[in-house]
C-alpha cells in the first residue's frame, strides 16, 4: 500500500431543527443550487461560487459533496417537511488539521433575514459531527448579516484577513471567527 491512502468518511448525520432538516446533498438539489447561486448577491457572498455560474457547476458541486473521498461535508437546509422549499441553502464543514474544522454557509436570497442561517449554523455547531475542538469561520466585511449569524452562534471575533472571491475576481476583506468546542 502506498503512503497516499484515501480516507472514506462516515456518512453525514441528519440533524433536525424546529423548521428544517440538515441532510446530505443529493442529485435532485442541483436545480435549486443553480437557481440560488445564479444570484450575484449569493455568489459574491462566498469564496468559491463563480458568477455567472457555468453550466454543470451545481452538478459538479453535488457530486463532490457526495463523494467518498470528499474533504468537505455539505448539508442541505431542507424545509420540505414544514411546507418550505426542499433546499433553502447549505451549511458545510471542511476538515482541517488537529481536530479543527471550517464552517461555511449560504442561504438563497429569498430566505435572507428569516433566521434560517442562524438556526442551521447553531444546529451544526451543537451536533459537532466532526468532533472538532475548534471551529473557524469567516464573513466578508460587507456582509454584516453573516457576521451576526456567527456571533449569534457563539463564534468570537479573531481578526481581520482577506479571502479570494471567485465571483468578484478579487480579494475581499473578511472578519475571521473562532469557536472553541471544549
- Helical segment count: 5
Structural class, from secondary structure content? alpha+beta
**3D shape:** globular
CATH superfamily: Gcn5-related N-acetyltransferase (GNAT)
Radius of gyration (Å):
16 Å
> CATH fold name, please?
Aminopeptidase
| Largest sheet data | 8 strands, mixed
Molecular structure report:
The chain starts with 14 loop residues before the first strand and ends with a strand. Residues 1-9 have low confidence and may be disordered. An 8-stranded mixed β-sheet has the order 1-2-3-4-5-6-8-7, with helices on both faces. It has helices at 30-37, 40-44, 57-66, 116-127, 144-152; strands at 15-16, 21-24, 72-78, 89-95, 100-107, 134-140, 156-165, 170-180. Helix content is 24%, strand content 31%. Strand 7 and strand 8 form a beta hairpin. It has one domain: Gcn5-related N-acetyltransferase (GNAT) (Aminopeptidase, 3-Layer(aba) Sandwich), CATH 3.40.630. The chain has 5 helices and 8 strands.
Please supply descriptive tags for the structure shown above.
182 residues, alpha+beta, Aminopeptidase, eight-stranded mixed sheet, 24% helix, globular, disordered N terminus
Secondary structure layout:
Layout: E1 15-16, E2 21-24, H1 30-37, H2 40-44, H3 57-66, E3 72-78, E4 89-95, E5 100-107, H4 116-127, E6 134-140, H5 144-152, E7 156-165, E8 170-180
Parallel strand pairs: 5-6
Antiparallel strand pairs: 1-2, 2-3, 3-4, 4-5, 6-8, 7-8
Short account of what is shown:
The chain is α+β, with helices and mostly antiparallel strands.
Amino acid at each position: 500500500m502506498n503512503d497516499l491512502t484515501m480516507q472514506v468518511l462516515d456518512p453525514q448525520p441528519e440533524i433536525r431543527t424546529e423548521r428544517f432538516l440538515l441532510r446530505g446533498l443529493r442529485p435532485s438539489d442541483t436545480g435549486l443550487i443553480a437557481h440560488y447561486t445564479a444570484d450575484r448577491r449569493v455568489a459574491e457572498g462566498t469564496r468559491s461560487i463563480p458568477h455567472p455560474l457555468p453550466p454543470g457547476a451545481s452538478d459538479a458541486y453535488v457530486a463532490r459533496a457526495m463523494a467518498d473521498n470528499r474533504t468537505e461535508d455539505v448539508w442541505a437546509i431542507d424545509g420540505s417537511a414544514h411546507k418550505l422549499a426542499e433546499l433553502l441553502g447549505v451549511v458545510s464543514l471542511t476538515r482541517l488539521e488537529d481536530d479543527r474544522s471550517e464552517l461555511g454557509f449560504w442561504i438563497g436570497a429569498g430566505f435572507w433575514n428569516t433566521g434560517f442561517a442562524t438556526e442551521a449554523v447553531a444546529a451544526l455547531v451543537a451536533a459537532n459531527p466532526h468532533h472538532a475542538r475548534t471551529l473557524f469561520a469567516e464573513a466578508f466585511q460587507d456582509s454584516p448579516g453573516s457576521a451576526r449569524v456567527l456571533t449569534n452562534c457563539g463564534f468570537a471575533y479573531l481578526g481581520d484577513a482577506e479571502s479570494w472571491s471567485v465571483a468578484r475576481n478579487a480579494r475581499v476583506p473578511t472578519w475571521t471567527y473562532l469557536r472553541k468546542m471544549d
